[in-house]
Specification:
This protein has 21 helices and eight strands. It is of the alpha+beta class and 713 residues long. The longest helix has 35 residues, at 173-207.
Length: 713
């Protein structure tokens, strides 16, 4: 087809000097934007590399400040020597320990005692069957220094050895923390590499070009570096808690959301290149066209994430601004840097499928056109069937395993967990993990007496005193984090007036309680924030409610699928207490994105004068492809979390990935479209589009379209 004449396409008329598309500006603006981002990277790069230095993964960094266990940890830091570092040496031989084994234990514990300042001598405690020796090792030598604590644990592990049938594992709270920090330290690099590989493969498949995929990947990489530097500044300026978990999720958000925005912009840019002779004019039209929709979707995600600031958990409240900065950073790079690079590279970046000026796109039979046709023929049947399917999947929540224990938090069992399991089998009459009680020194005697007489307590030991506080170690009769030990902790908290009850198991109780409180507060806030934004954006209560109900249904179905696979297939022994809240925030905030793209286009078609059915089906046909591509990319980036050796991250990656795919290919394409077809004009109630014969005039329609344009993939 020949080139379009200016008469056919007025947008291609020459523009006067000084206009946005004048030759001088066409050359200067892209270079200025690129140089600006180069300067940003030069400044941000060194600070981005420091983010790992300020990440905190101690249990108290996850707990709320007012929890009993947090108070215990903070008071212990002020006792002589600071926090205690507690490990347990576990020697075991099937059939019973030999005299040579006992001599080896004595020699090795002697080396540890000589090398380190211990609170008490390291005395072996034999099991009833004589097959296991437990040697508690407690020191204040590292104090509150995390690196010194890790070095102590590694030194102890270097001084013990088995062999010849004798096994030895180093466990205990400090060893477990060391193993967890080792996993966390590897998250950033592993996650970044895996995410880049996944996004690269998907972009190459999507664009079918040897060059084009590099452009969005470059832009999203710049966004990732910039956001890491901004978050480092946030920590330094406001002492926001950033954990390895929140930093990892932020990386996935930047790559997932940034790539989605790139897909929308590039799809619109490809279309505009057929209408505009110059790439600069085409990219300006593309940004104006899809920019408001992308801005609205990113604003919705950021608003949903910022609702986490209302959470009690430090880790949850810290994730709010961290995630919001990631999404806004991705938006800024995709709406400025990406267009500038596209203009500088010109049409040839699309090689071999270069969109020629004045040409028509190749007409292909659209999968989403067929989906729309089926939805248009049987909307009631499709809506009912889809609702039944989602409801049936949601029933899987009743198969979810219980709360995840610390020892079950790893996909690969570390040494500390092996030690804990050996101890649980060998010492059923006593917990190997103390419950830490901090009591006012003046009433410490009464607290000791009450603790000794409490049901479920096997032993009580008095520890350090300072600043009016005394430390007491209580050993329960039941295994750590068992129902019996939890009952003992709750009874101690009820009976020991004026004392704080903490320790690893108590911390898990406080995490559960805080998560329950946060779910009750944050989930309604997220729903209200998203609903209000949608009402303002779509100018319709009904359309907004449809989208919110849809994403909540997706969350329920995804969680139900988790119940069907977490324990039976993955072998997980529990779900992390924070999983319901985090998965809800991500699925609702991110899922609404695609609803915005679809409903925006539906509104655009309605404003153009099309009847409700035609508007709904046209919106699905024209946006379905790019929404599907964006959904696959987002699901794949979250699925990267499933490669990490932490159960919580695997569960999070699975739920969000499955939820996004359900939303993209079932809810968005079939159920929302079917509901819109059935409701007709009512979908825009109470806006003027809901009234029969209320199609705006051409001038009014143009004004509204300019206010709420939608992407045209």
């Amino acid at each position: 087809m020949g080139p379009v004449t200016p008469t056919q396409n007025p947008q291609t008329n020459p523009e006067p000097p000084g206009s946005p598309g004048s030759p001088g500006r066409r050359r200067a603006v892209p270079w200025a934007v690129l140089l600006f981002w180069i300067a940003v990277i030069a400044v941000a790069g060194p600070f981005a590399g420091k983010l790992g230095d300020v990440q905190r993964d101690n249990i108290v960094d996850y707990l709320p400040a007012n929890a009993d266990s947090t108070q215990v940890a903070e008071i212990e830091q002020g006792l002589p020597g600071g926090e205690t570092t507690e490990v347990v040496l576990v020697y075991h031989r099937d059939g019973g320990l030999t005299a040579a084994d006992r001599a080896a234990v004595e020699r090795q514990t002697g080396e540890i005692t000589a090398a380190h300042r211990l609170v008490a001598p390291a005395k072996p405690v034999p099991s009833a069957d004589g097959a296991t020796l437990m040697v508690p090792v407690v020191t204040t030598e590292p104090g509150n220094d995390e690196e010194a604590r890790t070095a102590f644990v590694e030194d102890v592990r270097g001084k013990v050895s088995g062999g010849g049938g004798l096994s030895v594992d180093v466990g205990g709270p400090s060893a477990l923390q060391t193993d967890m920090e080792e996993v966390f330290s590897a998250i950033d690099g592993t996650l970044m590499i895996a995410t880049v590989i996944v996004v690269t493969v998907l972009l190459v498949i999507t664009y079918r070009s040897p060059f084009l995929w590099l452009v969005p990947l470059f832009a999203v990489g710049v966004a990732a570096i910039t956001t890491r530097a901004l978050i480092y500044g946030l920590v330094q300026g406001f002492d926001v808690t950033v954990t390895s978990q929140s930093a990892g999720i932020m990386t996935v958000l930047v790559f997932g959301a940034g790539t989605d925005y790139a897909l929308l912009l590039v799809a619109r840019y490809r279309e505009e290149l057929r209408r505009h002779r110059l790439p600069y004019d085409a990219v300006i039209a593309a940004v104006r066209g899809c920019g408001p929709a992308v801005l609205a979707s990113s604003g919705t995600v950021a608003a949903g994430l910022l609702c986490l600031l209302a959470a009690d958990l430090n880790s949850a409240s810290g994730l709010g601004p961290v995630g919001a900065i990631g999404v806004v950073g991705a938006l800024a790079a995709m709406m400025t840097l990406l267009p500038a690079v596209l203009v500088l590279l010109g049409r040839r970046v699309f090689w071999p499928l270069i969109p020629a000026y004045g040409s028509d796109p190749r007409q292909r039979r659209s999968l989403f056109a067929r989906m729309g046709t089926s939805a248009g023929k049987r909307p009631v049947a499709i809506l009912v069937t889809g609702a039944v399917v989602l409801g049936a999947l949601a029933l899987g929540v009743f198969q979810l395993p219980g709360t995840l224990k610390q020892e079950d938090s790893f996909t690969d069992r570390p040494e500390s967990v092996s030690a804990m399991r050996t101890l649980a089998d060998a010492y059923p009459e006593r917990s190997s993990q103390p419950i830490s009680v901090i009591a006012p020194t003046g009433s410490a005697g009464d607290v000791l007496a009450k603790a000794r007489s409490a049901d479920g307590v096997a032993a009580v030991e008095r520890g350090r005193s300072a600043d009016g506080w005394t430390e007491i170690s209580v050993f329960a009769e039941d295994a750590p984090e068992s129902a019996g030990e939890i009952a003992t902790i709750k009874k101690l908290r009820a009976d020991l007036d004026g004392a704080y009850v903490g320790g690893p198991s108590a911390q898990q109780i406080d995490l559960d309680d805080a998560n329950a409180r946060d779910r009750a507060v944050v989930i309604p806030l997220v729903l209200a924030a998203v609903l209000l934004i949608l009402i303002a954006l779509l100018r319709s209560l009904v359309a907004a409610v449809i989208l919110v109900v849809a994403v909540v249904a997706v969350w329920g179905a995804a969680f139900g699928l988790g119940g069907l696979v977490f324990e039976p297939i993955f072998g997980f022994q529990g779900t992390d207490p924070s999983l319901p809240l985090f998965s809800f925030v991500f699925l609702v905030a991110l899922g609404v994105d695609y609803g915005i793209f679809l409903m925006h286009r539906m509104r655009e078609e309605a404003l153009a004068g099309k009847d409700p059915s035609t508007a709904a089906l046209t919106a699905l046909r024209t946006t379905g492809g790019v929404i599907a591509s964006a959904g696959i990319v987002l699901a794949a980036t979250f699925a990267v979390l499933m490669n990490l050796p932490l159960v919580m991250m695997v569960e999070m990656g699975f739920l969000v990935a499955v939820g996004v795919l359900l939303d993209t290919f079932l809810v968005r394409t079939y159920l929302v479209t079917s509901a819109s077809l059935l409701l007709g004009r009512t979908v825009w109630w109470p806006g003027k589009l809901s009234r029969p014969g209320a199609v705006p005039s051409a001038a009014e329609g143009e004004r509204e379209l300019a206010a709420v344009p939608a992407p045209r993939p």
